[in-house]
Amino acid sequence: MKIIMTASEMTPFAKTGGLADVMGSLPQALSGRGHDISVFIPFYRNVKGPLSETQYKGHVTLGSRKCHFEAVRISTQDNVHVYAIRKDEYFDRAHLYHLPGRDYDDNAERFTFFSKAVVHTISQLGLKPDVIHAHDWQTALVPIYVALDPRTAPTSRRPCVFTIHNIAYQGVFEPSEFRMTNLPDHLFSPHGIEFYGKLNFLKGGVLFADRVTTVSPTYAEEIQTQEYGCGLEGVTRSRRAHLRGILNGIDENTWDPSKDEHIPEKFTVRSLKKKSVCKNALAEELHLDVSGTKPLFGMVTRLAQQKGIELFFKALPEMIHKGAVFAVLGNGDASYETHLRHLAAKHSQQLAVRLEFDEGLAHRIFAGSDFLMMPSLYEPCGLSQLYALRYGTIPLVRATGGLNDTIEAWNAKTHKGNGFKFSDPTAVSLLEGFDRAMHAYRQLKAISALRENAMACDFSWDRSAQEYETLYQSLQ
């Protein structure tokens, strides 16, 4: 099949979060299955790599204004064709979406332009895809422009898939921005992309795509509820028959304890005793006391309310009292950072905090910890728990979104399961899950079986790509 994907970021060219990792891996996995894959991204200032010559020069219309651009082909080392839409006025900036403290004022204009330019370039280059797959609010207008393209009759229109990576980010703008889209007036209505008097990009993608996906089966159900739908639950419920969740995968070459250059001792499921070398080295690096049988809990996270940081704060004194030690890596909310500094000073041998992003330290925490803690209030998919499983580090997670789908609760009788889950977004519920984890940790057979089960899990991108392949084929 010929598949075109479009997104606002992609590793290794531009990244702010997990969307870039998906775009860096899923196209390669699909290409490996024999498909012809092209990806369209914006040409940001930090897009790197050798460039081939410009493939197309043209313009699209925003309101009454012509916007000229170039479509540049980027050379890559794999079989994925990457095109970058170049218009320096919009994309030659220090950051992708915002300045420190506030979004760019012209984000609606930037990504309306990008969506139009992608659809226009696909036509002008004669790419003729079997499927067009757009990701998140920045490209949510693509399915609308494809559906309304006068050059394609309804019977020959290219089917579109739209993926929601996090429904909390919707691309909501003032109604005055609608004129710039050049969409028919009737679409600025409750049955179109109007949302409480404003313009909602994500809503458009959900309504106009032939199929809608999100990044885990549980999250696909959750976004249809008032608790998790962020105001769009009625819209997602209206597309229920065409909505499904497909779990993200991970790059198993990058996250592989048998060849990870970031960790002090490589190991496999057959040499799990070497994991203790990683634990002791991590404790020494972070000045933690793991003497005796103290379990080490890692957290590699954004410091945001979504991640359940306040639950962690409330439960921490009791968990330390019961003998646990913690390594926390991440940054984010300034008040959370301040409180973590205070707690680390108070519990210097039981809690180490690094308020930064450090790729090497992240690998060492995944390799050296006994458990990974993820008390998220919501989690569309989650990747940290998947990285942890690869290193035999046992996740303790709240049963939400992708955490619920990827972690099977430990059963002491059958020795099945790869982690521990708790249900309620409360410190009490977190502590109940913590106690179950501590109990298993003190039993050699249990913790050994847990680690073996964890490392046997398959969350490769090939598995995810096969599900997307089946979805695409259903549209032919």
Describe this structure in words.
The protein has 476 residues and is α/β, with parallel strands linked by helices. The protein folds into two domains: 2-249 and 461-474, Rossmann fold; 269-455, Glycogen Phosphorylase B (Rossmann fold, 3-Layer(aba) Sandwich), CATH 3.40.50. The protein has helices at 18-32, 88-91, 107-124, 142-148, 178-181, 201-208, 217-222, 233-238, 275-286, 309-321, 334-346, 359-368, 384-390, 401-406, 427-441, 444-455, 461-474; strands spanning 2-6, 36-42, 51-62, 65-74, 81-86, 98-99, 102-103, 131-135, 160-164, 172-173, 194-195, 198-200, 211-214, 243-245, 296-300, 325-329, 351-354, 371-374, 394-398, 420-422. A nine-stranded mixed β-sheet has the order 3-4-5-2-1-8-9-13-14, with helices on both faces. Strands 17-16-15-18-19-20 form a six-stranded parallel β-sheet, with helices on both faces. Strand 4 (65-74) and strand 5 form a beta hairpin. Helix 9 packs across helix 12 (359-368). It is globular and about 70 Å long. The mean pLDDT is 95.
